[in-house]
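ugh ok so i messed up the first submission bc i forgot one of the chains. this is the corrected input, ALL of the components this time, i swear. 705 residues overall. if the numbers dont match what u have on ur side tell me asap before i send this to the collaborators (the ones from the other lab, u know who)
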Amino acid sequence: MSAGRLAAALAAIGLAASARPAPAQAHAFGARYDLPLPLDLYLAGAGAAVALSFAIMALVFRSPAGAARPQGIDLLRWRPLGVLLRPATLAVLRSLSVALFLLILAAGFFGNQETLENFAPAFVWVIWWVGLAYVAALLGNVWPAVNPWANVFAAAEQASRRLGLGDRLDLGVAYPARLAVWPAVVLFALFAWFELIVEASKQPAVLATAILVYSGITWLGMAVFGRAAWLAHGEAFALAFSVFGRFAPLGQPERRGGAGADRWYLRPYASGLVTDEPCRPSMMAFVLLMLATVAVDGFLETPLHASLLEAIASEPLVRPVLLRLHDLDLDFIAAVDTVLLVLAPGLFFLVYLSFSWLAKEMPDSELPVMKVAGLFVLSLVPIAIAYHLAHYLSYLLIAGQLIIPLASDPFGVGWNLFGTADYAIDIAVVGAKFVWYAAVIAIVVGHVFAVGVAHFVALRVFGSPGAAIKSQYPFLVLMVAYTMLSLWILSQPIVGGPNLAASRAPSGTLALAPYEFHEMCFELKPADEVAFEFQADRPIAFDIHYHDGLSIRYPVRLAGLSAHSGRFVAEFARSYCLFWLNRNFTETSLTYRVSGP
Amino acid sequence: MLGLARVSAAQDGPTRVIDVRVENRRVVEPEGSIRVTQGDVIELRWTSDEPVDLHLHGYDRELRVEAGAPASMLVEAFASGRFPITSHGWSDGGHGHDALIFLEVYPD
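and heres the new structure output, hopefully the right one now
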């Protein structure tokens, strides 16, 4: 018996608390219940960020130029940690990661397809993508040890070695230097689109399919260029977690083409972001892409975004496009949001490059703009990390609890492996006040680290404190603006989406603009009946249609009618839509009445 | 009475009664979100001109309201946050996850 049915049965015989929900349903997957950041905290945060920035600037005057980058303590000298990082421990960790990977695929394809009752979406989107980001940023980047794609490939290589089939499984093609990390950039962009815009990404089977596709691409890349080369240039998550990991206190020294070095250092937070070598353009693009997608993620939930979509939808010029999208069964909101997701990194890149140019012009430096940009791009990462943490803290603590019942019943079929299948999510585990203060403090701290890192780099690059300070004014403005953007997003009430339906009422009168359409849909079963009647002051087109895979079927299709009435009987069990289109070049008034089954 | 256990606050009656009116599939009263303080016990008294199945997310409460007849949802607002209340059953040709209204529970 599934947990939900058990709870219902208990309730029926009065043994359960009256309003006790089925364990997993107190939380709609992907929903966040955060209250908007209050104005006084927003202003306090912004003020603190600005004030502390000037304090850091004042300190710069006093430091010697060219301070050495803190190297950190070599942790392997510490015996207990050395024991922990023995090959045997790592082997266990790697096997566990592969087992988990296979479980996710199995649950995704063969488990219950209800998102809340399947292990795969909860683990991938909450524990892995949000949780591991926290770990990578605050503790250290552990992804190289638990990367299932790397681990499976390594295991395959080991097996082939044992079987005497050869030392390596790849073709040995040298990775073309000009490609740099562009493959990772492209893959991360696709991932961001899948995560933020494809609603089906939370469905178990769709998610599992996407994972399989990504696995294929990754293993292909490894098979051609070698495991290490692909991990360094093409595996999008290896790169993403390594960017987060640069902020963390536990880090590994950067090695070109290295995957999993065995030295670990304990170093001050953010010191991994101080770089002597400027980031290559593709790496800069990757970092800016990460920053942009984090911002878009937040922006998509704001009222401003909903208003923007409503404004676009009411633009007369957009109507034919809306019609075309409707006929192709493409989602208008997804289409506009995809455009936003494409434009945002471009915008970030332009803005960042402009400020980098200012940063080099102000101290009259001879350095090329791209070099300056490449040196300072990592200093923005703490702001993105801080915003990401603030934005997802309560989500991780609330939605993360889903994993407790799901660990006992990963396929959603009624198991109870660890006895936790009836666990009910506690939505009060963390209060709004705690989240607000944690968010503002995190953002201010992130901002301070960003300014600090940038100043540190500036001293090393520009030599004299005077030139360094001049170069930092533009970056200061940029960072304050970026921090304010983060605070602004946190202060916005979360809204579900724009209301694009002209009217949901079962009867009424509407003014349809030229090429505007009105649609009403019903979930019907065979033999369900819908009665309709309508009148318009000009002839309009009317149809009743349903989407069949990629095509549209029209059981009823009429044009040039000013009035009509009738009853429609459904033949199949699916969603049928009544559709009125004003093909005239002038506004037409439509009066209708529809009664469903 | 001896041995009386601590009576739950809900049994004393709600601290606030909020009337919510749904007309033409939109909430016409109150405007904006429903704002309460953490710890309040509230009664959401719904009236609708059409039958509707309501779902308060987070607290995971469901309520069916028949046309014309008021129906109540008693909620002990123990958790702070902003929780959407959605309607099931009305299809608006695509996105069925528009919230009718939000319940905002503020920390005290």
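quick check: The two ends of chain A are 33 Å apart (CA to CA). that seems consistent at least. Confidence is low (pLDDT under 50) at residues 1-24, 256-260 of chain A.
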